[in-house]
Structure formats: structure tokens, C-alpha cells
Amino acid sequence: MLSNIKQRLVLMLSLVCLLAGGTLSVQARQSLHTNYTPNGKSFSYETAINFQKQSFKAVLDLSTCDDSKANENILSIGEDLQGATGWGGVNVIHLFYTKSNNNLELDCFDPRSRTHYEVLKDISGELTIELKSDGLYVNGVQRCDASAVSNILAMSSILYGSTQGNTRSWATYKEISLEDVEGGSTGGGGTTTPTERKFDASWIQNQQKVGDWKEDAHATFIPYASVEAMKSDAAFNEPWLTPQNAETQLLNGEWKFKFVPGTQDGPGESEFFAADYDDSAWDNIRVPLSWEMAGYGKPVYTNVGYPFQNNPPNANVGYTYYGVEDHNAIGFYRRSFNVPESWNGKRLFVHFDGVYSAAVVWVNGKYVGYSQDSNTDAEFDITDFAKVGDNQLSVRVYRWCDGSYLEGQDMWHLSGIHRDVYLVATPKVFVADHYITAPNLSKDATSGTLKVALKVDNRDGVEAAKKFLVELLDHEGKTVGSATAEYSGTDTKTVDATISQLSGLHAWSAEDPYLYSVVVKQ
Length: 522
Known about the structure:
The chain has 522 residues and is mostly beta strands.
């Protein structure tokens, strides 16, 4: 049936990128709205943003607010703007204005609590709200620091608008914009120096922190430069094979490795990420492979209890009767990789299929991001860290973290990079996710409609226009139906392609596992 369609995603470069081969850049200032007047109606928009390079700025004229209403929701920013009855429990900033007394109420929330509350008096006329990497500013004055809104600042896209409470906004939005921070303009192919990020080792025991600068989870896809390259790849018909013609680069193989035993007080010191660090005396280890299988420590099997002392959220002290002699050990991995000239101007990701149990990633000596969750993918955008030519990749792996308490199952407990690692190159504006459904499917699964939702990622906020062609291919590669979807603008958003009136379809069954393919071109 259509719900069992074999999914293929082909990301074809636009003609401009093929011919120019250059880099894209962000405007120093990107205007999202000017002189916008919602007139008391709900509104919500989404924009891609990188708070290490950009700030969110809104300039409002409060003179048009309704002086008969209290707590007018003039602006909310975050992952969920909430409705009339929603209050807290998500990462969001709410601002409420009461014109009759010129009070501005500021509320910041994370999923656990309200992180900041304040009422500002004598606010009238023009109001400027800025959300920067170091906190929230009102009329140029910092009202809360980054710690109160850290989860929002870690997002790659935000919602903004007015949907919360009983009164929508009557303010006039003179301008809403994204502003480049100093030194924060984005180049292509890693030609810029990114704003420095920082890793905090306390995150391995912070139950609210499961990643830093990690890409949102998405459907699996492997990009190709053309349909011909995709169809000529043996992995197209046998997807368990390693792609040979894709816009990917496999990083499996020999890595340099240093094992650092832990202590009862925590992991040992392991500052080995400098680009020019001399690792020539280190051991070699094969990736993917759990380090116990290479002789570093012993594999641990438990069916009840943990291999470490039960002291959440800490997981530091191992039990010797389980064979643990090195407590929360660290494995430090290093290797080089080469970015080909043909990838100049593209967006570049490093993808880990699985790491036990927490990983910190550096490229060319610069901190890129952090991930927990041993058996799910972790992907990081390294466009501004890598360069065409030779590069250096370092990964610090912690044997345990607070997430290990959720992984205390009846199984072997192992450590290290235990699944594939590879690079992925995409256009700067690209399909980051896809969701395929089959509404109106007949009972015998021989007719229906195919709907493909495509999330178009425009995190740099560049002006772009793209047309996507979605094709449904049968088992023999013949086109069964097709549809198009168009994108234009500067935001990250979802566009839909719908193939209607499909008939004569071959239903899937266990006895006859017939598969279709979906191809998406841009």
C-alpha cells in the first residue's frame, strides 16, 4: 500500500548554483515585516535564525493599542506561542501591554518553570524588543540574561506573533527584522569564522540538556546532484548498501583514539581537540566499533540495575562486580577529512548514526555541538567550520551521561561510536524533511491520493525561489504520477505536493512486498 512507499529524496542543485559555484551570503539586515497592523487578530509566523550570528528585533508603535483592554499580548517568541488558555510549560517569551496604565509585563518560560517575570512601568510610544545571544532587551536595556531563555537561543527557527491570552495585539509593528551581530554574517563553504560556541561539561548530568546545536530529527534522506546519479547508484535499489554517487562522504575507517579512564569524581581531563594537536602516538581504532570490543575496558551485561551507582543525574562510579574498572571513561576520537571543491558554496553536515552515550564535536579546533541518546541520529551543521580541502574532526565520547538511566535495559552496555559517520552536502536552501501520507486510500489499496509535505530550510534567510517536482515511480521505475510545489521567500516553511486520482496501484503485502519510490527534485 502507499504507506509502505520506498522513499527517495533527490536534491538537485538549481541552475544558478550549478553555474555560479559561488557562495551565498546573508544581508546584514533582513526585514520580515514593515508597518504590519494585526488589528486585534491572532497572527503567527516562523523564521529561521542563528542566534550566534543574528538577533531578532521588533519595533512597535504602542499608540494604536486598545486602551480599554488589559494585558494585550503584543508579542510572543519561542517554540509554541500557545493559545488563549495555554500558560507556560514550553520554551516561550510572552509580552503583555496595558495601555491604560502603561505597564509592560514580561514572562519567560522553559518546560519546567517561569524563568523570568517583570513588570515595566511608564512604557508608551515606540517600543523596541531585541532577543540576542546574551538575552532579552527592552528599549536597549537587558531585562533577562541568556540563562533565562537559553533553550530558545539554541533553536534554529522560532515562532513569533500574538496568540496567547484573551486580547490580541492592536500594536503597529513598524518593523520586525533579523539583524546580523558583529562578525556574524554567513559565508559559504566555511569561509567565515563562526562566533565561538562553548561546551559545558555539566550537561552530561543535566536532565534538561540533551543536545546543543544539534539538528532537529527528520526523515532519512540521501541527497544526489541529479536523478541520473541517483538511479545509477546500486544503493537506489538496495538501500542497505553504502551510496557511491551521492552528495555524501563516509567517514568510517581508521581513527586516532585515546582512552581516558574516569574517576569516582567524574570523567578525566581530555582537551585534545585543537586542530594542530599531535595525535601521532595515539592508538588506531576502527569506526564504527564499541571501544570495549577493541580491548578498552570490558563489555558489561546487566538485566537488573545499572552498571554504575544509582545517584541520578550523576553516572560516575562504576560497579567492579560488573567488570567496570574505569568508571565514566572517555574515548577521544580524531581524524581528518577532505571537502572537495565541488562542495564549495553548499551546506555541509556531519552525521552520526549512533554514539554511546554522549558526544561532543569539534571541527578544526572549534566546538560544533553536543548530543545525547545513544541509538538515535545526531547531525550538526558544520558549514561555517569546515573549508574546501583538509579539515580535522574531533569527538569526545562519554561512556555514561544522565541519559544512561533511561538506557538501563536488559542488554550489553557498550561505549563509543558504534554506527556510521558521514558528511552530507546540500544546497544552501534545501528540503530538510519530508512527510509522505496517503489520504483517501481505497480499502484494497489500489487507488488514492499521495501527499508529500516538504520542509524547506532557509536558515540563512536568503531570498529564494524554488520549484519542486515530486514523482511517484513504480517498482520498475516508471512514473505513475507527479505534482509540483513552489517555494519563495526568506523563511523556513513547509510546502505540499499532492498527486491525486491515482488508480491501478499494486497493494503491498507480506507475501508480495511491492514497493514504490518517491523522487523529489529541486
